[in-house]
Structure formats: C-alpha cells, structure tokens
Amino acid sequence: MAQICHGPLLTAAIDGLRGRRVTAYPALELDMQSAGATFQDAETVVDGTLVSARAWPDHSSWMREFLTVLRAKAPVT
Question: Is 5 an active-site residue?
Fold first, then answer.
C-alpha cells in the first residue's frame, strides 16, 4: 500500500497502523502515534508492503520504493 501526506489518516481510521513504522505530513505526527504507529520524519518509510511519504516533494523517493515493493511482490513475467 502506498500512502502520502494525509493518506495515512485513512489507514489509521481502520486501525491499520498499529505497530507499523510510517511517515506522513509532519503535522500528523501525534495522530500517527495515537494510531499506534512509530512516526519517522523521513522522505520515505517502508514497513513491509506499506510505503509512506510526507508530501509531494518526496514523490520520487516514494515512488521508487513503492515500485521496488511491487516488483518484489508481483513480478512481471
């Protein structure tokens, strides 16, 4: 799953961040911690198949990591 900016709020709403490492828009740090996640202020954070980024300036790093996860989990043959 790829999420960026305020997207992790949707994952938090279904209790999908508990015990995960994540980044998001910096103002959401407390929301991410309240959802049970470990917040990291980084361009991109990969936790298994969860790939998150802070905001649009992080797009290139975020997409690169997301494609790496996709290639590993669903290789094109």
Answer: yes
